[in-house]
Write a structure and sequence with these properties.
By secondary structure, the chain is of the alpha+beta class. It contains twelve helices and 14 strands. The chain is about 25% helix and about 20% strand. The longest helix has 15 residues.
Amino acid sequence: MRMVVVPGLTARAVPAALVAVAVLTSLTSPADARRGRHHRHAAHAKHATGGGYNPPYAAMVVDAKTGKTLHAVNEDALRHPASITKVMTLYMLFEQMERGKYALDSELTITPHAAAQAPSKLGLRPGQTISVEDAIKAIVTKSANDVACAIGENIAGSEERFAEMMTAKAHALGMSRTHYANASGLPDPDQLTTARDLTILARAIQDRFPRYYRYFQTRSFAFRGRVIGNHNHLLGNVEGVDGIKTGYTRDSGFNLMTAAKSDGHQIVAIVLGGRSGASRDQIMAKLVRAHLPVAYAGARTAPPVVEVAERARPAVVADAVSRTRTQIASAEDEDVETTNSTGEPLDISPSRTTTPGGGRLQALPKAAQAYAAQAAQPAFPNSGKIVARVGSNERDEPPKPLAGPKVTPSAWVIQLGAMDDEDKARTMLAQARAKVGGSLSKAAPYTVKVEHGGATLYRARFSGFAEQETAQDACVALKRSGYSCFATRS
């Protein structure tokens, strides 16, 4: 039996029986019927013995431009994410696409394990394939568990390994109380998160992947003769809402991650544990309408949500010379009940609301972590079709760390990562400039010393960019050479 230990939290007993309301049913394949532990909402109606369905509730609203908390209820209490899990699954896929491991037309193979996942699903058979773009749309609209599992297996070789990577990614982003056990959000007692952690993810996926985030706005998806609608009913019905993901299991209740922007205002909001899809949507609509108009409308002041090196470990940047690898480690939302309760109690704190200015909000991570692809080597073992596009950059001797006079940062700078040793940071800068040249040949490399979580880190940066556009162009060149980076104001 696996055990997840979350610092600072004490488990409390909760009522063992949760009574579900009946909703519309849909077809179940014979194979799914044989998986006895998975049932539809309607199947639970006969178990109702009185009382109402009352899953544990939590919510949080954050101003995306300032990082300020606008509303919070039980924001640090453990909850099951359900299909909101798939936002992290897509984050991991987008990262692989950014590295050049996959393109939108790349094919993902369906394994027997993926095909056997409980609904909601596309119903793909073992050996069939689905394009990456169709997989993204199937996740956003159908919340397809078979596709989510396939994404994990194609990237990491197994869903279990992929879940470990998801958890490591969550912790690197600052989602300290999140733990993933699978790629889909199907019930598992170890699949845990908090409303606060999910606001971090909602901001991070927009900051890191603005090009791919637009897929969360997909209203419907045509796949092999079927038209599949999005379960996020706030899209097109609540002004400003532009994504992102719903979720439901019996243990979690009805969940929703939302992003909204209007007239320069921008927020992210989380509702966990709604009693029904309709009540959850009503709660979220009220939160958006109440807080979006009062969110900050000026220039963004909060730094991008980026990854940090855990403890004193170096950032995950591959060494092309030594080839040393640093290990990184649903339900369909409205019409399918996928499983019985896990029977595992959650830690449920008494309901409370945090008002802005209460001083309880933890600072978001500031030290960035980025990635460089390994030369001529897949990013993960047993990853099938994952083939790195970056050619070998081996040298008899690696570039020496860049050193020089103190650099005064320009208006815009590029950050590659954060290392636990300044020489490592400077070596990474030297390798990047030697490999990319061009727009970086006149850029000034420098490091910034920061303290995070008791560890000293060194941010690796390039200065010399007066305009945002030139910094972003240089970052594009870095990405083409296998590096991940972002442009930011100094």
